[in-house]
Design goal:
Blueprint: E1 3-10, H1 16-28, E2 33-42, H2 45-56, E3 64-66, H3 81-104, H4 120-132
Parallel strand pairs: 1-2, 2-3
């Protein structure tokens, strides 16, 4: 069974995690899974340009967003509400299935929600705990 995982990154930096994920997917399981770039964001414009070159192969990919997402709120669409509710439910179910699949393949997974990046000290501790457990 071939599986493609799409990687989205908050505070992406120049692309080290994305590059590592691409390499890991081809080295550890080259025929069954692939990790591809979906989107990335960082608040530094030069970093976004570097990420775009390193990962997307172009200087200004539309999938690399220069913005501080911590300043954005959770927005619920006012139109087509039924569609968005179903879409969010499907996304949650897909994420659960992807986590199960990754764990079954012996991947260690840390999920960080946007709301968790507001407290940088707590975020740092969460990542350290994950990496060193």
């Amino acid at each position: 069974m071939n599986i493609t995982y799409r990687l989205g990154e908050l505070f992406c930096g120049p692309g080290g995690i994305a590059l590592g994920a691409k390499w890991a997917s081809t080295i550890t399981n080259p025929t069954n899974s692939l990790i591809t770039h979906a989107w990335a964001t960082d608040y530094d414009k030069d970093t976004c340009r570097t990420y775009s070159l390193n990962i997307c192969g172009v200087e200004n990919s539309k999938s690399v967003i220069h913005d501080d997402i911590r300043k954005r709120g959770n927005v619920t669409p006012k139109t087509n509400v039924d569609y968005w509710q179903k879409k969010r439910f499907r996304n949650v179910e897909r994420d659960k299935e992807n986590l199960r699949t990754l764990k079954n393949q012996s991947w260690k997974v840390l999920v960080i929600w946007e709301c968790q990046v507001k407290n940088s000290l707590a975020l740092e501790n969460n990542v350290k705990d994950f990496l060193y457990e």
